[in-house]
Design brief:
- The chain has helices at residues 7-14, 18-26, 44-58, 63-75, 80-126, and strands at residues 33-34, 40-41.
- By secondary structure, it is mostly helical.
- It has a two-stranded antiparallel ribbon with strand order 1-2.
- α3 packs across α4 (63-75) and α4 runs antiparallel to α5 (80-126).
- The N and C termini lie far apart (67 Å).
Length: 130
Amino acid sequence: MRDELSIKDVAETFDVTKRTIRYYEEIGLIRPERNLQGRRMFSPGDLTRIRLIFRGKKYGFHLEEIKEMIELFDQDPSGVSQLERTMSYGREKMQEVDIRIRELLELKKEMETWMERFEQELRERRGETL
């Protein structure tokens, strides 16, 4: 693999549109260098940032939160500030996931109750007995 990739290469690597990559640049999540022709050239560091963006999105982080976490590393290369903030955001996301799991379990229980009612109704309409 070359040291630097074009926007087309990056989009194909991550299976996204070039517009998505340009958008991440517009909002300051990535800052690819430009070659002499003005084309974006993405370094391994840019690819790492993009991986972090997609990982953050997978876990439900907002782009502003992802941007903050990425920028914290730029401000503190030790990574301590970034890890502290990431853990704080992570705890919040885990609480949201716990709430959503409870909601889904309640929904499932309600659906099971309705299915039992429907099965009973169907048996009655067919004239079936237990």
